[in-house]
Structures are given as C-alpha cells and as structure tokens.
Amino acid sequence: MKLLERRTAELEAKETLTTADRQSALRMTKLLSDVSADFKNYHFAIVDQIKDEDGAKAEQDRLDDHQLKVMLLIDRLGELVEVPYKLNL
Q1: Is residue 87 a contact partner of residue 15, using CB atoms and an 8 Å limit?
Q2: For residues 73 and 4, what is the distance between their CA atoms, to the nearest angstrom?
Q3: What is the pLDDT of residues 54-72, one digit of tens each?
C-alpha cells in the first residue's frame, strides 16, 4: 500500500501526465483492488480467531482505517486518469 501511495504522489507531482502515466495509474487502481481484497481476507481470518470484544473492536478499527486509505487513494488515482479537458456541450 505504501508503494502505491508513493507512486501516486510521484505522478501527482508531474507537471503533465503522459498516456503511459495514465495507464500506470489505471494499473495501480487494479493492483489496489487486489491488495484491498487480500487485506480483507486476512482481516476476516484474524477476526475469526479473536475471542474478546476489545480485540474485535481493535481489528474492526484497523479495517476501517484501511478502507478509508483505499478510498482516498482511489480518489487520487481517479483524478490522475480523468480526461484532461472538458467537453463543450
């Protein structure tokens, strides 16, 4: 996840994005989806082993934090792949 955040920041820092940059952002969106699904599977496996309520709450907080980070990163990637001009209708 940290590598995706770093690469996104690198693309955001560019003055102009090439087609290859936008394609990279699209690939990162797919990778982010895969990483998030893996994290959720790992999370649910841990939750199944937790017996106490405090441990379950801590793990739920961890999942909520992860999902918020994923949503923010998806928004950032979405801005990178947006059409760079507006259509005049």
Answers
A1: no
A2: 8
A3: 988 998 899 999 999 999 9
Residues of the chain with pLDDT under 70: 83-89
17: left (phi over 0), alpha (psi -120 to 50) or beta: beta
In a domain, 24, yes or no: yes
Residue range of the domain that includes 51? 2-80
Q: What is the DSSP letter of 84?
A: S
Residue type, 53: E
Backbone angles phi, psi at 14, to 5 degrees: -70, 145
Alpha carbon distance 67, 78 (integer Å): 16
Residue 89 lies in a domain: no
Q: What are phi and psi of 84, to 5 degrees?
A: -75, 5
Instruction: Specify the DSSP class assigned to residue 88.
Output: -
Contact (CB, 8 A) for 43 and 58: no
